[in-house]
Amino acid sequence: MRIRISHLTSYVYGTPATSVIQMLRLTPRNDDGQYVARWRIDVSIDCRLDQHEDAFGNLTHTFSTDGPFSALAVMVEGEVETRDTQGIVRGTVERFPPSLYLRATALTTPDADICAFAAASRDAADGNVLNLLHHMLERLHDDMVYDTDPTQVATTAAQAFALKRGVCQDLTHIFIAAARSLAIPARYVGGYFRRDDGVDEQGPATPGPKLSCPSSAGWLSIRPTDCAPPTPMCGSRSGSITSARHPCAAPATAAAAR
Questions:
Q1: b/e string for 121-140 if b means 16 or more Cβ within 10 A?
Q2: How far is the C-alpha of 64 from the C-alpha of 96, rounded, in Å?
Q3: Residue 124: CB partners within 8 Å, gap ≥ 6?
Q4: What angle, rounded to 10 degrees, do the helices at 129-143 and 112-124 form?
């Protein structure tokens, strides 16, 4: 499938900006499930885009310019060829071991309630990690209400879980916290998602837990706001996905396997 993407970010400043420095993470990389056929970034002001890679291997672009100016726009356009890999992500740049994605962070530290939620999912999965991840995703989808009002970017997984409400990033943080509490590496992945219902979805891409194992399966992609397998994704800014590592090479919707 060939996906065309057009993404516009517009800034309007109440007081004209004297200067701006930005780092953009808007460029996907090739992997076994996607090939970037064409990609372009345009900035509305006169500047030079310098391309780099961050520590994780993501492609980044930086620019700086002097004002004053009262508006700024960043336009991304491109085409990406995708193929169905049954939720398994292979061929990506991996610079760190899966154990890195077990570490606690400020937004994904599990509390007692999240640990209990994860433990109950584990007990119902009969020792099958893939079933565990699916079961945990289904329970999270049933228990949480998608609501844009009560949370914001600094809301932690524990806070959102206590509210039982939140947006895609909140569900993703809860899923990551729960997976990590069970020693399943998990991480947050950003991307665009194709929707067949004609609705435009904007927001941070759902993270994916990563599960470490000595097999060749790869990362499994999971979208906490859905129970169905994720649609084709090319790495950029919209939607939320969770990845997890699974110890066997079976496809899954919510985790990544190596």
A1: bbeebeeebbebbbbbbebb
A2: 30
A3: 132, 135
A4: 130
**Secondary structure of 91-112 as H, E, C letters:** CCCCCCCHHHHHCCCCCCCCCH
pLDDT digits (tens, 9 = 90+) for 97-107: 888 999 989 99
Q: If you ran DSSP here, which 8-state letter would residue 31 be given? A: B
Share of the chain above pLDDT 70, in %: 76
- pLDDT grade, residue 244 (50/70/90)? low
- In the structure encoding, which two tokens stand for residue 19, read together? 């200067």
CA distance 224 to 240: 7
CA–CA distances in Å: residue 1 to residues 5, 36, 37, 60, 221: 13, 12, 12, 25, 18
Q: Rounded to whole angstroms, how far apart are CA atoms 177 and 141?
A: 15
Q: What is the pLDDT of residues 219-241, one digit of tens each?
A: 888 777 654 333 333 333 334 45
Contact by Cβ (8 Å): 15, 246: no
User: Of 144, 165, 133, 167, whose CA–CA distance to 257 is shortest?
Assistant: 133
Q: How far apart are CA 80 and CA 232, in angstroms?
A: 10
User: Kindly report the CA angle at 111 between 108 and 114, in degrees rounded to 5?
Assistant: 85
Domains of the chain, start order: 2-82 (2.60.40), 88-257 (3.10.620)
| Farthest-apart Cα atoms in the chain, separation | 62
Report the alpha-carbon distance of residue 89 to residue 189 in Å, rounded.
11
